[in-house]
Design a protein that fits this description.
It is globular and about 30 Å long. It is built from two helices and 14 strands. About 5% of the residues lie in helices and about 50% in strands. It is mainly beta. The longest helix has 4 residues. It has one domain.
Length: about 140
């Protein structure tokens, strides 16, 4: 299983237990516990089960059109929607993110493309409107 998902990331303790493989298209919302890796296409929202520490990995071939609400996000694919990551977000070099990002800690690799706003820090209600005052627009170089 380790070869399927690559090297374990020591920042998250739970292993990736579920996979939506390349070539798979899923229309609908996903609620998951533990870890989920998406290499296919999801047209719908992706969120963790309430109160669960979790990790979502968006692979290089993946495409998500919907909102994401998780503790930890590692992205190397395409996301269109809104992202709330309560612990951290890692935007890898081949990522294309076309949305607003709310996070506690962010790591953005060289080569990543982000079109949207970044908002750091927890918000009591978790709403995009509550974060609006602290957001910074990103400009295309």
């Amino acid at each position: 299983m380790k070869a399927l998902f690559g090297k374990a990331d020591k920042q998250h303790a739970k292993p990736i237990a579920s996979l939506i493989g390349a070539g798979t298209v899923l229309s609908g919302h996903i609620v998951f516990s533990g870890g989920l890796r998406i290499d296919g296409e999801v047209r719908g929202n992706v969120r963790s089960a309430d109160g669960q520490a979790n990790t979502l990995v968006v692979g290089e071939q993946a495409r998500i059109e919907g909102d994401i609400d998780v503790a930890r996000l590692i992205v190397n694919g395409l996301i269109k929607g809104r992202v709330d990551a309560t612990e951290f977000i890692k935007v890898q070099s081949k990522a294309q993110v076309d949305c607003d990002l709310a996070y506690a800690v962010a790591e953005i690799h060289s080569g990543a493309v982000i079109h949207g706003r970044l908002a750091q820090g927890p918000r009591a209600d978790g709403s995009a409107a509550a974060r609006q005052a602290d957001t910074l627009p990103l400009r295309n170089p």
